[in-house]
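Progress note, sequence design subtask.
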């Protein structure tokens, strides 16, 4: 082979770099669009930290909070607007769970985690999360997550 065929064409090198850069930019753009940083976007279903759960409640007015504690626990304090579907009766009352976006809460996260799996197995496409944390209810009706 001659030395001229061994050389790489500078224009071709420039196009290879340009297409590589464009591919990388598109790939990173798709990755970034799948995160929760986009306003009004939902995170992937599953567990939410206390701060993520508070953010979802603040930003998503169509989110339903479902409290899976006992009725007695619910009556002692709950998130305003939450509905009560005790874990003990959940398998028989799946129709009480709305089909839209749902955040499950309980006292420690254990029952909400269990409820998540029950609902997710029955409705794999459901937008569904559970709080991995502990709600703390105040006498004035306010609450925080820890």
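Output:
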């Amino acid at each position: 082979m001659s030395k001229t065929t061994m050389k790489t064409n500078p224009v071709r090198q420039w196009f290879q770099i340009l297409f590589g850069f464009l591919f990388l930019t598109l790939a990173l753009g798709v990755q970034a669009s799948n995160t929760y940083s986009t306003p009004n976007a939902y995170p992937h279903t599953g567990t939410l930290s206390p701060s993520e759960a508070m953010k979802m409640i603040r930003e998503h007015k169509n989110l339903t909070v479902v409290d899976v504690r006992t009725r007695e626990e619910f009556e002692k304090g709950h998130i305003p607007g939450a509905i009560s579907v005790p874990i003990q009766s959940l398998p028989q009352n799946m129709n009480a769970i709305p089909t839209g976006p749902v955040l499950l809460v309980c006292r420690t996260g254990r029952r909400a985690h269990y409820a998540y799996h029950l609902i997710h197995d029955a409705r794999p496409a459901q937008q569904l999360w559970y709080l991995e944390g502990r709600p703390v209810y105040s006498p004035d009706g306010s609450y925080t997550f820890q």
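The CA atoms of residues 73 and 107 lie 9 Å apart. Work on this subtask will continue into the next period as scheduled.
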